[in-house]
Design a protein that fits this description.
Blueprint lengths: L15 H18 L32 H7 L1 H12 L2
Helix pairs in contact: 2-3
């Protein structure tokens, strides 16, 4: 499924600005992690796709996105966990 198909996350009572911010951040996480599969030996960079800091180094920061990814795209979480398991 396309990355954008998992983005809409409107919360009842949230302002339009809050909904847009939540959707933007969800899109950034999915864009950075999308395509991570069990057979792909890669993880999420510390700055994602949004900055040159750390020059693509991999830290343990992806643990902070596991809860959201597990609910929306469990196959991505599985791929990220397999990356750690192989190390």
């Amino acid at each position: 499924a396309p990355v954008g198909s998992a983005v809409p996350m409107g919360k009842d009572g949230a302002s339009l600005r809050q909904q847009l911010a939540l959707n933007l951040h969800t899109f950034h996480v999915l864009q950075t992690a999308y395509g991570r599969r069990r057979d792909l030996d890669a993880s999420v960079g510390a700055r994602g796709l949004h900055g040159e800091g750390y020059r693509g180094h991999i830290f343990w920061d992806e643990i902070y996105v596991y809860p959201m990814l597990t609910l929306r795209r469990p196959e991505i979480t599985r791929g990220l966990l397999m990356y750690r398991y192989r190390r």
